Amino acid sequence: MVDRLERLVNLTATLLDTRRPITLDEIAERIEPSYPEEKGSRRRQFERDKETLRELGIPISVETPDGFGSDQAYRILADDYYLPDLGLTDDELAALHVAITAVRLEGDDARDALRKLGGVTGEGADTAFADLPVTPALSQLFEAASGHAPVTFSYRGEPRRLEPYGVVLRWGHWYVVGRDEDRDAPRAFRVDRIDGGIERGRAGGFTPPPGIDPRELVRNDPLTYGEDQPVDARVLVDPPRAAWVIDQLGESAVVERRGDGAVVVGLPVVNRGAFRTWVLDLLDHAEVLAPPELRADMIAWLDALIERTPAS
Question: How many beta carbons lie within 10 A of that of residue 184, not counting itself?
Fold first, then answer.
């Protein structure tokens, strides 16, 4: 454990210090304790170390420089690693502190960042208004989108290549949105369902379409992404959730407003699994009205869930 901790520290320092991306063989020559001589063991150990550093929030850039053949090379860009001085005033830091404590992320990364900006100052919110999930892939996808770097990952067992336009929070989940290179079409992927790690390509590897807004692409996602023909769904939403659903789907989705404040919304559904999850998130505040086959599919799915739930 001590050797691995020392190797992780030395690996970070080496990748920060290099002026050009370096290969795994070069890394092994420069750090102590070093990696195994056997190529396969060396690669496996390095990949574990790389994922550990990324999970700690250290952005490792993966590149294929000219003259290196197909070998990947690595470095940590100082601009990505170090937090710049944003020149915030005490009042601005205090406001940022209230915002950070009002929305609680898994872990304490936001508070750590605030300390780097000048310390935790001011009174925070007494109770968090929301809990947002965080996965190891999230920071990598934010960096890839901001740096216009294509990414490769496995999603439900299938390799996907994406030019990420942005990362968007919808219905309590994070989605990465962009152009699927293999399908040459916009796609959105739920981040917590990505299998394994993210491979990031060269920064500036693609140019997003002018004026693209990732939030618009994901407005009806994940319901509209898939290969089947869309089904026009009608869902009755009770008053306690009506405003929230309208905010998510847009005013144009409302097909009927009822006197008690409930609304009926219409939306195209391709991905029925995602649709079922969306309806379930609304608990007893939503009812699928039409079409009959979609309503029957929802009922059958709920019955199956009940059968699989052990009796208490």
Answer: 7
Between CA 59 and CA 138 the distance in angstroms is 11
Helices 2-17 and 39-55, axial angle in degrees (round to 10): 80
Helices 90-102 and 109-116: angle between axes, nearest 10 degrees: 180
Q: How many other CB atoms sit within 10 Å of the CB of residue 230?
A: 14
What tokens were used for 210? 């002018």
Helical pair 272-281 and 292-308, crossing angle rounded to 10 deg: 70
Neighbours of 40 (CB within 10 A): 8
pLDDT of residue 296: 93
| Spatial separation of the C-alpha atoms in residues 2 and 214, rounded to whole Å | 44
The strand ranges marked E within the chain are: 61-63, 73-75, 103-105, 130-132, 151-155, 158-170, 173-180, 185-190, 194-200, 231-237, 254-257, 263-269, 286-290
Cα torsion 171, 242, 214, 228 to 10°: value is: 80
Q: Token match 């030395």: residue?
A: 10
pLDDT band at 134 (very low <50, low <70, confident <90, very high): low
With a threshold of 0.85, does the pTM exceed it? Answer: no
